[in-house]
Design a protein that fits this description.
CATH class of the largest domain in chain A: Alpha Beta
Shape of chain A: globular
Largest sheet of chain B: 8 strands, parallel, barrel
Distance between the termini of chain A: 34 Å
Order of helices and strands of chain B: EEEHEEEHEHEHEHEEEEEHEHEHHH
CATH architecture of the largest domain in chain A: 3-Layer(aba) Sandwich
Number of domains of chain B: 1
Structural class of chain A: alpha/beta
Number of strands of chain B: 16
Strand order of the largest sheet of chain B: 3-4-7-8-9-10-15-16
Helix content of chain A: 10-25%
Oligomer: heterodimer
Number of strands of chain A: 15
Number of helices of chain A: 7
CATH topology of chain B: TIM Barrel
Number of domains of chain A: 2
CATH superfamily of the largest domain in chain A: Nucleotide-binding domain of ferredoxin-NADP reductase (FNR) module
CATH superfamily of chain B: Aldolase class I
Number of helices of chain B: 10
Structural class of chain B: alpha/beta
Radius of gyration of chain B: 19 Å
Largest sheet of chain A: 7 strands, mixed
Strand order of the largest sheet of chain A: 10-9-8-7-11-12-15
Order of helices and strands of chain A: EEEEEHEEHHEHEEHEHEEEEH
Shape of chain B: globular
CATH class of chain B: Alpha Beta
CATH topology of the largest domain in chain A: Rossmann fold
Chain lengths: 270, 318
Amino acid sequence: MAWTRFQVRLLGLTPAAEGQYVAEFRLQGPAPDASPGQFVQLSLPGVFWPRPFSLLDWEVRDGAAHFRILFAVVGEGTRALRSMSAGDLVEGHGPLGLGYPAIEGPTWMIAGGYGVAPLLFALRASAPGAQQSARIFYGAARADLLWRSPELDRFAATLTTMDGSAGRRGTVLDAVRAELDAGGARPVLYACGPMGLLEAVHHLAVERGLRAMVSIETPMPCGMGVCRGCAVPLAAAEATDEKRYVMACEDGPVMDSARVDWEQERACRI
Amino acid sequence: MPDLAPLSISLGPFRLRTPVLLASGCCGYGPELAGCLPMEEIGGFVTKTVTLRPRPGNPPPRVRETAGGMLNSIGLENVGLERFLSEKLPQIRRLPPFRVVSLGGYQASDYAEQAGRLDGQDGFEALELNLSCPNVAQGGLDLGTDPARVREAVRAVRERTGKFLIAKLTPNTQDVVALGRAAEEGGADAVSAINTLVGTGVDWHTRTAMPSPGSGGLSGPAIRPVALAMVWKLSRALQVPVIGIGGIMDARDVLEFVLAGASAVQVGTALFLDPSGARVRAAALRGEMDILRVGSCESLRGNLEKRSTHAPPREALR
């Protein structure tokens, strides 16, 4: 079973950081598997489209799938989710999309804000050996915007804030850059965060000859490649007259940053 | 599955399992949704629009959420006729009827050429002409808004095909009936209405018009009353059957269009919200018919009446 149409029960909402929450759901009925970087579409009250949420985890226990998402209240959909109560039912479908590849060798994870969710999932889901070869860098503007998950200590996360109120002062990419300069590491980069961060990760990867896997965020009406709404411009190397775009939902959301024409993407960004 | 007999409805020479077809552009080429939406529980589907040559589609942002609907400007992204024939049609052939191939073009000859190439093929029952895709209009000329050009395009296709021929009409017109009559005169076996309405959204962060061309096609429940008015008008004015499209979200909406005279309906944008189509499948339709005491879809068709302006005598109300 690749994905399923489901009804989920909200088990609870927990404050995670300023304006950010962890929502936990239990899926009623048979559950497929999910992998890190995949997402679910949730139909929230009062908004027309379902909203895509990257999975923070997904596990089947007592015969039912349980999953959590980390979200920031940024618009009508997330405001509606914030106002829901434990016990409320939500319709949706998933898990959808292509996630992060399994960790093989040195992997550095770069999280901007609530983009930390799928990266923690990827770390948690990987074998102990792979976890040893991975590092996570997690940045936000201020300390109160960082989600202090207990897992950050477990994975020895490097924290950054723009104002220095927690961790290192500067951007998350400053920290990555400094660490790359300090040692001879040649990691694969996994990133999730605002599109501007992903673009910067791409440029860093090009500059250092590294591979970067980034998780694209864009409105997705259907989430499964049918509406063709979430187009991402393809880099010149891959684009043809017939094919100039890939869909963030079915060709991603996680894709090699080299596939994206970032200049065009920036011009189209909303 | 519930007893389908009360749901079945005639469309020209065809008997559809239910009045519900999946609309063009909202179910891929058909097989994409077949895994989650059992095709036996609906009437059929219409493929995304195919053009002579492949089209990469429009740059993002292609979509915009609106109150009760959405704007899109996908730009007829499709694989083109060659790949449609070699890759998509063999998959469509394995799905149950009623299967409709949607054709797009810039001029009558584009539609005719494609219809000719498809005429000898089996695996589908009908063609739908997408006569109006505002997102790809060239030089502001939209073939579908001009009755003479509609007649010409339909006639050109009619000469090349024996397939059941549906003309999809634009609502971006003063007189949808004139477009319907033109299609009928050109030899259409049915008309479908409505395509999307032209609309513009505003992205306040960038102060840019949405979607990317500056406007797009509005769909969803916001347009349903417009669609109902046009379907009702068309069904009374034309001899050929009318297929109703526009913001259908659930079984009740389906029955409203049938009551307004539609021989079948198409469900589009609702599939983005729920790709399993649960609210318009046979069981949902049957349940709603029981609630509304509708014996059969066929018996409901075209019974929508205007309210009398004269009060009935009191005893008549009992």
